[in-house]
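Example 3.2
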Amino acid sequence: MSSLIKATDIAYVRFSAPDLDRMEAFLGDFGLHVADRSDDTLYMRANGPAPFCHVTHKGEAGFVGLGFYAAGEGDLAKLADAEGLTVEASDAPGGGARVRLTDPDGFPIDVVAGQTPATPLPLPEPLAFNADDRYPRLGSTKRIAAGPSHVMRLGHAVLNVTDFRASEAWYKARLGFVTSDEIELAPDAPLGAFMRCDGGERYVDHHTLFLVGTGTPGFNHAAWQVANFDDLMAGHNHLEQAGETHVWGVGRHVLGSQIFDYWKDPWGHKVEHWTDGDLFNNQTPPGKAGLEALMGAQWGPDAPPAMAE
């Protein structure tokens, strides 16, 4: 299937909330850092080079939209021409340009390009693991510092949509997503799909966007990659001690294979830490799976009812 452009990754999620101080405190405990803040908007970044990955506008609590990266401003012009829109300068950290689309359920979808990268923040030294009959860590101890996880980047978002096939077609036609795994309620009864960016021979995350045809549109969750498993567990302890609301984990997913840990922000939006996920390229064929694989875990607790919301 041809598409107008091929998005290269997810850029950010946008929310609104009545208390920017409370959101900043939660996201700090989650492992994000302030990129910029005004009286009405909070931009948070991860440790990687993205200028920001989470935006909160002051207002009634809710999900506002998503941003995706285009390969360049020429791709923005293609989208703008096809949709009858304009390419506008971005006033967000990193600058650049954007086109603001609206998906079939009315979700605002920004497509951005030309941002100036931020200076990456320090990360812990890579960890060595004694495993099987291999012992690279000889004569040394391992000590994991207490504190928030070191968040590398935003990895994916999940949206509940009214009509899965309609939304799937919209995102594939405009942003070039390809299916990694389609979820079926029964044979030939699709519920949704894990979709990844089309990087050609380049390996990319198993999914950047997951659409779930619930019949009622809304935000499901967004997920951030952390440094490693110990870092995820340290972050789990830190959020627990901060009194935040845990949802599901720690476990390892079946589809995507990543180790996961889900929390809720102060207004009930689900956010995930993950590490060690699958990477696919154009040699990886699409798969099909049922609800058991979707909601199951290779190890860890069963999914709670809150994950179906």
